[in-house]
Design goal:
- This protein folds into 2 domains: 6-165 and 348-363, Glycogen Phosphorylase B (Rossmann fold); 171-345, Rossmann fold (3-Layer(aba) Sandwich).
- It is 43% helix and 16% strand.
- It has 15 helices and 13 strands.
- It has a 7-stranded parallel β-sheet with strand order 3-2-1-4-5-6-7, with helices on both faces. The chain has a 6-stranded parallel β-sheet with strand order 10-9-8-11-12-13, sandwiched between helices.
- 48% of the residues are buried.
């Protein structure tokens, strides 16, 4: 048993939960804390380099009220996960703090912590409190959030906006100046970990058919494209002789962001926070089916700061997007102002601020 204080992190399902949890874990470890991680098999796929001395897999599933016959099985999985976490906390080392970063894989750790009266910290990445975090918000010592706005927050919860912890390689790009727009113009397009089909359909047509030829000739398109769309998208760009780098996944996201003059992306919490941290203008296209419309809420901060445009899926027509791209890329001064506005609300100290809150909560 370690003599270091232990923080157990519950998170999972997607990189959107796991990446900020990892940044927080790195900061806590640097302060002399031992870190444990509880997640499900999906979350652990993102945890190869997660700075935890141990990792525990739990069974977790999201309740689906549209399929009521699945609810008993979901409840059994969650109960088994809670019981497993309770046993670990009792038999091994009792945590000084349990930190939940959202997703149903966080439920067992938070529930076990509540049962054993261990202080709880919650971090919500989005501008709308997620379902699991809502369950525990009133029991938590603090509910930290990635944005000033936090909808669905229960009355009486201790809300502290701190920003979203960003990965160290992203933070390192904050000092890279906005690129000169005198020659080549780089547009970086990303649609989440799997890419977005609608972006692969609309964006190439907007660029090929609705941007003036002299401007189009200067473009370098760096686009994440779903595997099954690669050939079709490449053919569209080749036909109009647009330089394009197309991949189904970019492992060098920090470098791609820093090199971009303009980013077109979904408005997941992590993506929005990373764009702001590096300081780049953007066009944000919220995922229409996102729970509680949280991606639209996430985008609002950058839009209100004059750093981003928001284009809803229902309005994602190639002609409208092409006109917007031509307007933005044709005005270098405006783009520089937008880049500065993004950087002004970017935050690379969120992990340290969240760790301060964590240590304060544990000390209580």
């Amino acid at each position: 048993m370690s003599d270091k204080p232990l923080v157990v992190i519950g998170a999972g399902g997607t990189g959107g939960h796991m990446f900020p949890a990892a940044a927080f874990a790195e900061e806590m470890a640097s302060r002399g804390w031992e870190v444990g991680l509880i997640s499900d098999d999906r979350g652990l796929r993102y945890a190869d380099k997660f700075p935890a001395s141990w990792k525990q897999e739990v069974k977790a599933a999201s309740p689906n009220i549209r399929k009521p016959w699945t609810l008993p099985g979901t409840a059994l999985k969650l109960r088994a996960g809670v019981n497993g976490a309770v046993r670990r906390f009792k038999q091994d080392q009792r945590p000084a703090l349990v930190a939940g970063f959202g997703g149903y894989p966080a439920y067992p750790a938070l529930s076990a912590g509540r049962r054993l009266k261990i202080p709880l910290l919650i971090h919500e990445q989005n501008a709308v409190l997620g379902r699991v975090n809502r369950v525990f918000a009133q029991n938590a010592a603090v509910v930290a959030s990635g944005f000033e706005r936090l909808d669905r927050l229960p009355r009486g919860a201790n809300h502290q906006p701190v920003g979203n912890p960003v990965r160290a390689p992203i933070a390192a790009m904050r000092d890279v100046p906005f690129p000169s727009m005198e020659e080549e113009l780089t547009v970086f397009i990303t649609g989440g970990s799997q890419g977005a089909r609608i972006l692969g359909q609309a964006i190439p047509l907007a660029i090929a058919n609705h941007i003036p030829a002299p401007l189009r000739a200067r473009l370098h398109i760096v686009q994440q494209v779903r595997e099954e769309q690669l050939e079709e998208v490449r053919a569209i760009y080749d036909k109009v002789q647009v330089k394009a780098t197309l991949q189904s996944f970019f492992s060098d996201m920090p470098d791609r962001l820093a090199a971009a003059h303009l980013v077109i992306a979904r408005s997941g919490a992590g993506t929005v926070s990373e764009i702001a941290a590096v300081g780049r203008p953007s066009i944000l296209i919220p995922l229409k089916i996102a729970m509680d419309n949280h991606q639209e809420a996430n985008a609002e901060g950058l839009v209100e700061a004059g750093a981003a445009d928001m284009l809803l899926e229902d309005n994602l027509y190639p002609n409208l997007l092409g006109e917007l791209l031509a307007l933005r890329l044709g005005d270098a001064n405006d783009m520089a102002v937008r880049a500065a506005a993004a950087k002004a609300i970017g935050n690379i100290r969120a992990a340290q601020d969240l760790a301060d809150l964590a240590e304060s909560a544990a000390a209580r």
